Amino acid sequence: MKGFRAALGDAISCSEEYKNDVYRFSEDAGLGRKTIYNILRDTRLDESKTGPGIFGMARAAALLNTTLDALTTERKLPKVETATKSIKPLATHTLETLISQVEADENRLSVDALLRTYAKSGGRIEAFVPWLDRCDQYHPPNARSKRLECKEVGQQSLAAITMRCADKDVLQEAVDTLEDRELADKWRRDYAKASKLGTLTTIENLSIQMPNQPVKVRMEFLRCLLHVEDAEGTKTILNFSLLIV
Question: Which superkingdom is the protein from (predicted)?
Fold first, then answer.
């Protein structure tokens, strides 16, 4: 079964209907909601001589307009024109990253601009309204917190671009199921530290399987955490991240 998981992941990525929703694809194929997701993550299948159930995989292949033969033969599936559409948001993000690194413009979103805004506003979230679509929002962890809790995903944040959707439930599951538990603990400590210090800027390396994506995401990015509050005293941690290119 070597190559099957990669071929299945490629086929899902090429599907206009299912590329952003592995869960719905799994259900439409008559399988459990997380069956396909688990298959894509199960490295044991690479050495398995039996693999997943043939009838379920046949239904899955039919939904993707391919065949079991194509999925089990070690050859690449043809690329589709729609792949360009999914790359465009990431390309735009990368371009903005490069520009922000060479231009000192207060009106252009960058870590420097965010830190200046934080200092000038005294950490009020109202000052960040123009940029909230680029930031993810988290609940500040307390001493008893054993997990990070996502409040909202910015429509144009790095997480939204990576997940191809701004769904906080998808991001929450990705954080909760992070295989690198040392990294998960570090992140929780970082957010707790940001709650005390007000701001925290770090460089992060990430390798993660997004719950709604068939491929594994690997990236290096600059992350700025900002502990803010609104007029009613509700506290939030903003996460602004930029790819390092």
Answer: Bacteria
Q: Look up the pTM and report it.
A: 0.62
CB 138 within 8 A of CB 148: yes
Q: How far apart are CA 13 and CA 22, in angstroms?
A: 10
Element (H, E) at 41: helix 35-41
Q: Number of structural domains, the chain? A: 2
Spatial separation of the C-alpha atoms in residues 213 and 192, rounded to whole Å:
29
Residues 63 and 100 placed together within one structural domain of the fold: no
For 59, the domain range is: 4-72
Residues 6+ apart with CB under 8 A from 214: 8, 9, 10, 12, 13, 19, 22, 40
Same domain, 91 and 209: yes
Q: Tokens 């043939």 label which residue? A: 54
